[in-house]
UniProtKB/TrEMBL annotation:
Membrane topology: Multi-pass membrane protein
Residue intervals passing through the bilayer: 16-39, 51-73, 133-152, 158-181, 242-263, 275-296
Organism expressing this protein natively: Candidatus Lachnoclostridium stercoripullorum
GO molecular function list: ABC-type oligopeptide transporter activity; ATP binding; ATP hydrolysis activity
UniProt protein name: ABC transporter ATP-binding protein/permease
Lineage: Bacteria, Bacillati, Bacillota, Clostridia, Lachnospirales
Ranges where the ABC transporter domain occurs: 331-567
Any single Pfam family the record assigns to this protein: ABC_membrane
Coiled coil recorded as keyword: no
Residue stretches making up the ABC transmembrane type-1 domain: 16-298
Amino acid sequence: MKSVLAQLKQYKKDTFLTIGFTALEVVMEVLLPFMTAKIIDDGLARSDMPAILRCGAIMVAMAAVSLFAGAMAGRFAASASSGFACNLRESMYARIQDFSFSNIDKFSTAGLVTRLTTDVTNVQNAFQMIIRIAVRAPLTLITSMAMCFFISRELSLIFLAALCFLGIMLALIMRTTTALFQQVFDRYDDLNASVQENVAAIRVVKAYVREDYENQKFQKATGNLYRLFVKAEGILAVNNPLMMLTVYACITAVSWLGAHFVVAGSMTTGNITSLFSYIMSVMMSLMMLSMIFVMVSMSSASIRRISEVLAEQPELHNPETPVVEVKDGSIDFDHVNFSYRRGSGKSALADIDLHIRSGETIGVIGGTGCGKSSLANLISRLYDATEGTVRVGGRDVREYDLEVLRNEVSVVLQKNILFSGTILDNLRWGNPAASREECIRACRAACADEFIEQFPKGYDTWIERGGANVSGGQKQRLCIARALLKKPKILILDDSTSAVDTATDANIRQAFRTFIPGTTKLIIAQRISSVQDADRILVLEDGRINGFDTHENLLKTNAIYRDIYESQTQGGGDFDQAC
């Protein structure tokens, strides 16, 4: 709760103004029945017209102040709640941007989306209700009860009994529904995941005619959500009948006992009239409090989920005095072990001892799951090694400023992502200051110019979100061009030419020699043809180095590499398949 409320920031003033104006509104409203009783007892009963006019004028003034205070409270409440929600979303989004890959692995994409949308909206609505109704209801309740005791202590005991009864019942209802709403928002994650997966893979769904299966999966997710909501709302629905039962019981009891007091002369007609007004105020306050309990029940689960994101601390940090310059593109792994889950006993990389000179072209090859991508992730410090040291430019990667390191280590990942915007907008992710001519040269080196120039708008062609309007090979070449614009000291291609033909792949590698001759290049690939011209080739097996030498030497000395080569050059197919 503390981490969530800390996001109020500049909207604290609006929050306190809302509370202040709400309190003023309540005071005016509570005094109105008292003035009504004065008119009845001092004016009408005594036929005193000046007293009636005087009390009437005071009531009009009080009503005007109450109206003004209510309007101002509503205005500041809207500002405070909307600003609070805005700050929450911005803080969560900023925290997510600081997450390392290991932090992101703890949350699903759908779960983060739900937290940023549905959960924040729930908290916003609850906050607006709390700063208005949660202030208004208790104040009205307390002041009305005080006036009731001032008028008749005996009749006011009825209200105390009603309050105790409702308090116990609301506590039981809240205890049950809070746990249910936690399950509801977990089911929201499942629902969003189903929608996200279906929309992202809609082409595959249609290609395999799996619409019915996806509909059934979605219906199951919505059905689970429906059942939990019905169960939670069904319990909450008990709240209204309880409230009405209490209200009418109080009115009946006060009417019967109050009539006896009036007849006995211990109460005036004005007092009994104002007492009924205070009864309704007390009961309406109780109803408003019950509404707050409902919102708190729903939002408490959302607050916990938001707090999980805000409390999550990035696992990768800059050192106190970070190194801000990468000397060269040399890479050293000194007996490195790496596991995605510390203490799990399962290593993605084991005892990697590897030394690469600056400017070398290194091929990396191996079967699926052998640790190729894990190796690349450690170089740009997307993860930290579990044991051992990874050095770039002769320095431990943990000594560098993260932005400096990642600007000098350019990675084209397996999953190529383009963003909505023009081709130039996407290219300039690599270098925001790049000129159009620099972008064109990078695209020529990546062999992307040939298809870009065929578009009617050329480099100003709009790219849909995720690159949905370009092919896989075109997307890969645009991502390579984007990486080249950074002019890094180290370039890592993580199986990023798998969707292009072998001739284009060869042209791209040839262009590297002239476009970035001094850059260290790591080419992770499935095809022998993509790595055989490299200075040296690293063969990985089960997270360990099985061989590291030139193409010719590996053919002579390394059985795994020789099997891969023969399976691909003699028509055997993909090397992950049995030969």
